[in-house]
Amino acid sequence: MIQITKQWLSFIFEMKDMDEAIYVLGVEITQNRSKKLLGLSQEAYINEFLERFRMHYSKKKNLLS
Asked: What residues contact residue 45 under an 8 Å CB cut-off, 6+ apart?
């Protein structure tokens, strides 16, 4: 199924298969196959945003704790 989808997409769009993705549109993709977990992070985008507006020295708040 994945190969058919890749073939269809490459027919429609100019693309390259470059193995597993680590970043897609500024979103970091992490995975743990043994635990069947997939994680998405926008930390790099947020840090770039903070630097652009000179806020990168601001106090960080951990929302996950």
From this structure: 26, 27
Structure tokens at 49: 């945003």
Average pLDDT estimate for 26-49: 89
- Strand ranges in the chain using DSSP code E only, listed in sequence order: 23-24, 27-32, 37-41
If you ran DSSP here, which 8-state letter would residue 9 be given? H
Cα–Cα distance for residue pair 35/62, rounded to 1 Å: 24
Q: Is this structure's pTM higher than 0.85?
A: no
| Token pair listed for 13 | 């769009």
Average pLDDT, the chain: 84
- Phi then psi dihedrals of residue 23, to 5 deg: -125, 135
